[in-house]
Hints:
Two copies of one chain form a homodimer. By secondary structure, chain A is of the alpha/beta class.
Amino acid sequence: MLKVTVIGSGNVAQHLIRVFNNSPGIEMVQAYARTPQSLLHLLPENKITDSFHNLEEADIYIISVTDDAISEVASALPFSRRLVVHTSGSVSQNSLDSKNKRGVFYPLQTFSKNKEVDFKKVPLCLESEHPEDYIVLEKLANAISDNVYSVDSTQRQSLHVAAVFVSNFVNHMYKLGNDICQTHNLPFDILKPLITETAAKVQLLNPAEAQTGPARRNDQTTIQKHIDFLEDENMKEIYHILSKSIQNTK
Amino acid sequence: MLKVTVIGSGNVAQHLIRVFNNSPGIEMVQAYARTPQSLLHLLPENKITDSFHNLEEADIYIISVTDDAISEVASALPFSRRLVVHTSGSVSQNSLDSKNKRGVFYPLQTFSKNKEVDFKKVPLCLESEHPEDYIVLEKLANAISDNVYSVDSTQRQSLHVAAVFVSNFVNHMYKLGNDICQTHNLPFDILKPLITETAAKVQLLNPAEAQTGPARRNDQTTIQKHIDFLEDENMKEIYHILSKSIQNTK
């Protein structure tokens, strides 16, 4: 039985607590939250604390707080020589206080409060200061996911940047598509099957093969027609730069 | 029984022929292809012609060729006063020769040669010169799809631009994510669940609500860290412009 404590009460923390609760090989020892009420729907009251000094012995402490707070929280922990990891894609392992054994447990997924996520499919990116701790982290990761990767700090940073492109920027493209529909009295629904299919395609083809559209075909007439059609200066600029980038792809 | 003839042998034409073949209320009269062999896997030889003069009577002629060729093909048809439509998102209805009754039958989806598409979910955007022809087009559309929309030429042009954003540009974001993974010896597979979830989210939430990431949080430290991390000038520029666009979103 792996004994786990989660420190934090945000989106990622709550998804982790939920999946740990439902995993046979894992014992949720405690969770820390500044406002314990925020976790009462997930854990009994006696397992939630708002004081680091009440934290009991566990095999792994998972700090899942905002990036800026990780270092401070790690330093505030009143114990040493235990395994302490964070869940951030962009914070280095060394930001954790060296009094404890350090590691990273980074789930590469976008989490929303009101949408269930199938954790079995969530890639978990693991890193540890000491090889023996990696085995513990891997055991925990394998208990909840089928996609476990060993990822060092530079790789993790690159993944975080890549995730901005394939998720945050992609979502912004959806948002601009929605804006265009609204301007022309069309429902966003009309674009949804295309969005689904575009994401489904790259599960099978690599993205370079899957590329279609006027820029891919070097169809300068359509590109110019589209840029002229757009009234918003920001959209014109984005259309121009992304078309140029596609055209420059070898 | 609706009698349909498809003119063209590309991706869209082939997908249409396949779905018409499988639809009880529709009779595939003929298909035109410059190289008839290209359609032999879909139709018997006697239903494929490479001469416009062999085209028999049908209720609807669907021109599904490259945008540049639509006008020429429409003019070359040796008959008049019949219903002739094209399947393009970006060509106006008036590009068709006025000797026939004109219309548009635009499937808003990305089609690949080797990937089946569930046509029931493909939005079909219809337009016709004469109201009585709209009824015929609608009947044909309803026979193959559950998503049929009346879309005028300006709306259709806006959809085509929106589709570039939510599909072509989105795919390019996947491609850049793939490039980043390759540079750091990571498999693209690690990003796939995130890609799927990001597309799934906007089926339920509107894209503005679904937006996450450093730009959305106005986290200038992480944005700068990411831009510094990227070595490619093109990626730096795209990261900067899209972050700015997200930050300027009200």
